[in-house]
Structure formats: C-alpha cells, structure tokens
Amino acid sequence: MSKPSRIKLFIPLFVFVLLALVFLQLEKRMISGDYDPSMLPSALIGKPLPAFSLTTLDNADLVISTIDLNNKAALINVWATWCVSCRVEHAYLNTLAENGITIFGLNYKDDRQKANQWLARLGNPYQLNLFDVDGKLGLNMGVYGAPETYVLDANGIVRYRHVGVVDNKVWQSKILPLGLNWQ
Amino acid sequence: MRLGPLLALGQWLFLVVAFICLSYAFLTDDFSVKLVAMHSNSALPWYFKMSAVWGNHEGSLLLWVLILASWTLAVGYASQSLPLDMRARVLAVLGMISIGFLMFIIFTSNPFERLLLNPVADGNDLNPLLQDFGLIIHPPMLYIGYVGFSVAFAFAIAALMTGNLDAAWARWSRPWTNVAWAFLTIGIALGSWWAYYELGWGGWWFWDPVENASFMPWLAGTALIHSLAATEKRGVFRSWTVLLAILAFSLSLLGTFLVRSGILVSVHAFASDPTRGLFILAFLVLVIGGSLLLYAIKAPAIRSGAKFGLLSRETFLLINNILLAIALSVVLLGTLFPLASSALNLGSYSVGPPYFNAMFVPLSLPMIVLMGIAPYISWKRSNKISTAIPKWLIAAFVALLLAGLGTFSLSNQYQQDFNWLAFITLAVSLWLIVSTALHMLSKAKHQQGLITGLKRLSVSYWAMVIAHCGIAVAAIGIGLTSVYEQQKDVRMLLGDDISVSGYRYQLTAINTFEGPNFSGTRGDITVFDGDTVITVLQPEKRFYYAARNVMTEAAIDPSLTRDLYVALGEELGEGAWAVRVHVKPFVRCIWLGALMMAFGGFLAVTDKRYRSKGALNV
After folding, report:
1. Which of B163-167, B262-266, B435-439, B475-479 has the lowest mean pLDDT?
2. Are A9 and B261 within 8 A, CB to CB?
3. Is the Cβ of A6 closer than 8 Å to some Cβ of chain B?
C-alpha cells in the first residue's frame, strides 16, 4: 500500500464537520420553534378520515358515522380534560370559532360528564364533538396524544396535521398558507 | 500512572452507589423523586419497576455511565500486561469520555430531581410498550455493546498519540472489540424480537432511524473485527483500522445524540429538550471531531504494512471492509438525508424500507458468496487454489441442488410460483454453510481421526465458523420470511374461521380479565392443520389504567420453520373483532443466526492466544 496523501486523511473530519453543522442547524431551528420533528407527515394526509361510528359528546344515544362539512374546510381537534395543553389551546379555538372557522372536536379517552362540564365552563368552540372513549378513531388516525389537530379541506380530505397546541403562530404560518376555503 | 486502575475502581463504586439509590427509589415507590413519579407506578410488578430505572432518559444515561465505568474497570484490571504508559493513556481516554457523560447528567439530566412541594399520590406508569421482558434486557445489552466500542476507541487514540501502531496494539484491541460486538449483536436481535411480538405488526425490522443508529456501529464493528485481524496477523491496513475504531465508537455516540436530542420521533426517542441536544452536540464535536483531527494529523506517520498478492486473505478482508463500508454509508445516508433536508428547509422526506432493501440485497449476497471462499485463501499469497477448486464445485453443486429443492417445496407449500429471490438467498446461504463445513473437514483431516482433528482446531477458528454460519442462517431467515410470509386482516365473529397458508384459524372464545395494572380482552384462536388441532393462540388487547393506553399482545406459536402469529385488533361491534393473522416461515432463523454470531464473538475471546502474557506469538 502506498502512503495515503495528507488531504485524503482529512476527509472523515470534513464529513463529520458537515454533519455537525446540519445537526446544529436542526437544533437551532428546534429552539426557535421552527422545526418540530413531531410534525411528521401523517399517513392520513391526502386521504379522507377513517370510517368511524361514535356517539356525540352531548348525546350518548346518538351514533354518527359522518360529519357534514357544508363545502367548507374544517379543523378536527383532538382534546381531553386530562390534557393540560388543551386548556391552553382552548381560548384560541374559541377565537377561531368566533371568526367563523368550523371546528369539530374528537374528545379522546375522556369522561363524558367532565368533558361537558369543561365545555360549559370554558366555552364551546366545536360544531360537534365525537366521543372516542377508547381511542378507537384516534388509533386509526394515528393520534400520538392530545392536543393534535387535523386540517380537512372542503372535500373532507386531510391536508395537514399538527401535533401540539394550535395558536395564532401555527394558524398564520402553517394552516392559512394551505389556502383552503374556510368561510 | 499506577493510580489508574484504582481510580477506575473508585469511579465504578460511586456509580454503583448512585445506581442502587435510584433503583431503591423506584422499588420503594418514592414518588417524591420526579423520575419515579413520571415513569413508575405502585401497581407495577417489581421487575418492571426495576427496568423502569432505564426506561427513561435520565436513568438510562446513568446506566450508560455505569457500564462505561465497568468497562474502564475491566480494562484497568485485565490489562496488567500492557506497558504502563499505554494502560494509563487508555484509561485516561475512557475517563475523559466518562467525564463528558457525567457532566451531561449533572447539568441537563439530573435523575434525582425531587418533587417536594407537590408530591403526587401515584406515578404516571411506565410506557406500556416497555412493560415487557425483552425490554428489561434489551437496553443493557445494547449499551454494553455501544459503550464497549469505547475500549477499542481508547486503544486507537492512545496508539495514535504515541504513534506506535504495531501488531500488539491490534492484538490488545481484538478481544474487547469482539465482546462489545457480540453484546451489540444480542442487543439488536433482542430489539428486533421485541418489535416483532410486542408492536403487533409482525415486522422484525423497520429501518427506523433509531434502529439504524444501532445498526451502523454494528456494521463498523464488524468491519473493525476483520481489519483488526489483518492488522494483527500481517500489519496491513493500520491506518484504516484506526479509523474504523474511531468510527465504531463515534457512530455509537451519534446514536445517543439522535435518540436524546429530540431531532427524531420514534418509539425509542426519549422526551426531547433542545439544551440537551446542544450539550451532546458539543460533546460530539469535541470527541469525534477531536479524534478525527488527531487521526488526520498523526496517520501519515503510520508505517504501511507488508505487501500482499492479489489472491490473498488480505485482499478478501479488504473487499469485506469495502462492502461493509458501502453498507454503512447506505444506512448513514438513508438515516441522515431526511434530517439534512429538514435542516436546510427543503421539506420533509422520509426514506423508507424500499430504499434500504434495494441497496442491501445486492450488497449482502456477494458478501456471503465471498465469505464461503475466504477461509481457503491464505495470508500473503495463496497458491493452494487448485486443491480448493474441487471443494468449491462440490459446495456450489450441493447448495444449488438443495436450494432448488427447498424453493420448490416451499413454493408448493405456500402456493406461490417458483421464487428466484428465495432461490438465490437459499443457494448463497447454503453455499456458505457447505463451503465452510468442507473447509473445516479438510483442516481437521490432518490429524488422526476426524473427532480428534475437530477438537484440535483452534477456538478462534471455531468462532469464525459459527459466526459465519450464523450469517447464513440469518440470511435464510430474512430471505424466506420476506418472500413467503402471508398476512390477512379479517373481521371475525365467535365461531368464524379463516385459512392462511394451509392453516385454519377459528375464533373459539373471547374473555375479559384483569391484570395487575391493566384490564384486558383475550381471544382464543384455535389453529387447525387439516383436522388436527395444533395449538390454541391467546392474543390480548390491554388497557393500561394509569397511562390510558391500549396495547396489543400478539400470540405466537413458534417453531424453527414457521411462526403462526395472531394479533387482536379493534372490537368492531356486534361481537365481531378485527383479527390479524400471519404465517411467517423461518422467521426464527433471523434471531438464531444473530445468537450464533454473538456466540462466535464471545468464543473468539476465549482463545488462549489472548491469555498468554508477554511476548507476541504471531
């Protein structure tokens, strides 16, 4: 074997420095909130919601298996009373609802009575709430946990999924740019 | 310099005390400790309380440094024959790594943080996915492997510092590398086995970024074991071997970074915290960047080794290393490309199994073919080829014949057309086994009688034979499972039945029951082969109270040639259940092969060569 030239020996170091820069950039974007690995592209994107058959939160005898979108885009918000971040998010959902945004709730692994009390106390931004006590629909949708929000277009196709709290920043930077018909 | 081993003992003792304290807090349900409150629960059985110690970020880091301290201690006391300055350098490098990790624990991840103001009544419970026997031992095995590469790394750095990279250096590194590699093999196999029966998807490898993070050091370690052999015996590839030793440990550190910095989401990832990420990144730059810089500066001083002919074992080990290095780059690229594209704001991509499978099949098959030839080729220059050729012809003939018969009968059994991929995998794997066996026989024939001959073969030769056959067995498992597995998702009412791959599955009962910290539903699925009952499988669906989590427990009827695998899905109403049924031919061979490889790794270390002290006997 001939003696390798000096430059060649720096290649591993060079590759590593590049990698470290990529990682640094990722960490910086994570700290600034710009990059969130939990926003994995959902398997549902581009597809309609999975089939379901659930009661509504306010009526234990009413079983429904479709939601009516009225040719408008809508949010499906996964929430529960045991979820602290959902309380943080709730005020902003009320604001969205006041501005005419359609929001459906998926009450996830929760207690019916507690959930209704919560809505009576904090206000109800939801057109309708599905009561998913054993997380069946949640499991089929690939929900990691509450809060989580899915954006449906007017045809009922999932266009975006957000893990975590929806606030004004998320709404302005992630959901509005989808250019959907909200009104 | 003489103090080193004593200090290593001190470090180890104090870390043992810390680890016992944390375990005690878990076992006695001390919920004033935040970690216990977050990850344990009073209803948890004691063995899961114990494994909950390392089922979280902080505790697993403590386990990590404890293992590092144990390796350091072992090096300190097992290397009495090493020159004093060499031993001191090695211990110092290990000590510096340990300081980095201890600082990481103390500044960002205190496992003993208390909740004195707001004590909780009961803990959050351990993630139900982790409440499983495989997960009790999977992390410790994996860590022993990961951290074990730090020893080869420390030897390499110490040797680079002195510039004295002779055969002795390679010989000292070899047993440590083998043991670390064997533990890593077991750790990866356990992880794969766990994913298979616990996740309920029936897959055994997902090319998940974190799986890849453990696979990359394994590939580098495999290459290192082989190039260390060449360096020890012939003094060749020194520079490359040093680089591999640095790479194997660097990739272990990279895995730690990926899992703990929060830049990935996977079943393995721990709660994320960007400050932790920055800390490890800084540590990574220091350790990996520093050692690669040292390498770039010092490597030109390494004397190049002896010359070797084109047809020599050196050449074959070189090809082995090149193929492994390509495989390593493939995994590295596939794992990091999606991250790089997010970093540069090019959008999220995911690189799925199709990419990895398309790259790995053409890489591994030629590697296995060459593995069957390599033992016949001697060091420096081989001129015994003419005696080997008849054996190769016999091995190739036997392999092709058996593979043809095997593929034909399997295709018949599983009602498929003759599958060429299955045939090639079988042929190549059988070639490796037969060719290796013939080589062993011819090597043993020199002695009087075959049995005495086999006994006289060196332990490290046996280790090589077993590990290489392990590769063949695993390859058979991987190939046949991928080609012949069958899966059906069906809706079943009580009494319904379904046929998959010639077996008939009938749902004969559905019962509910109570576990220690969960409630469950258990299905009885009776499996028939024709009219005879083979077994009753009892898959479960569990609801864990504290975590409010639903888990699937698959039921498996295992055997070497096929697994019958049943998982219970959702209740569909009106007494109907979603049931997933798999038949997985030869899937056990994957883990059996991994066990054989690990056994080979351990066996090689017991060779008496490594016990002899003093002068080198090449």
Report:
1. B262-266
2. no
3. yes
Pairwise CA distance, residues B31 & B28, whole Å: 9
pLDDT of residue B617: 34
Q: What are the φ and ψ backbone dihedral angles of B268, each rounded to 5 degrees?
A: -90, -20
Token digits of residue B78 = 């097992």
Report the gap between the CA of B328 and the closest CA in chain A (Å). Answer: 14
Among candidates A19, A20, A35 on the partner chain, residue whose Cβ is nearest the Cβ of B342: A35
Over the Cα atoms of chain A, what is R_g?
Answer: 22
The residues near A111 (Cβ < 8 Å, ≥ 6 apart) are A81
The whole-number pLDDT of residue B141 equals 93
CA distance B352 to B208: 9
Nearest to B379 by CA among B281, B503, B267, B236: B236
| Residue-range domains of chain A with CATH | 54-178 (3.40.30.10)
* Domain locations in chain B as residue ranges: 1-131, 141-375, 384-485, 487-586
Residue B608, helix vs strand vs coil: helix
- Touching check for B319 and chain A: CB below 8 Å? no
Pairing status of strand B576-585 against strand B486-492 = antiparallel
0.90 surpassed by complex ipTM = no
**Average pLDDT over every residue of B482-499:** 86
Q: Is B263 on the interface with A (CB under 8 A)?
A: yes
SS3 content of chain A, % helix, strand, coil (to 5): 35, 20, 45
pTM for the full model? 0.80
Task: Give residue B202's region: left, alpha or beta (phi > 0; psi -120 to 50).
Answer: left
Closest chain A C-alpha to B498 CA, distance in angstroms: 24
Shortest CA distance from B284: residue in chain A: A20
Asked if residues B403 and B365 have their Cβ atoms less than 8 Å apart, the reply is no
Q: CB of A134 within 8 Å of any CB in chain B?
A: yes
- A88 to chain B, any CB pair closer than 8 A? The answer is no
Q: Collect all residues of chain A within an 8 Å Cβ-Cβ radius of residue B263.
A: 23, 26-27, 30, 37
Contact present, B258 and B275 (Cβ < 8 Å): no
Check pLDDT > 80 for residue B305: no
Out of A3, A27, A136, the one facing B281 most closely (by C-beta) is A27
- pLDDT at position A113 is 87
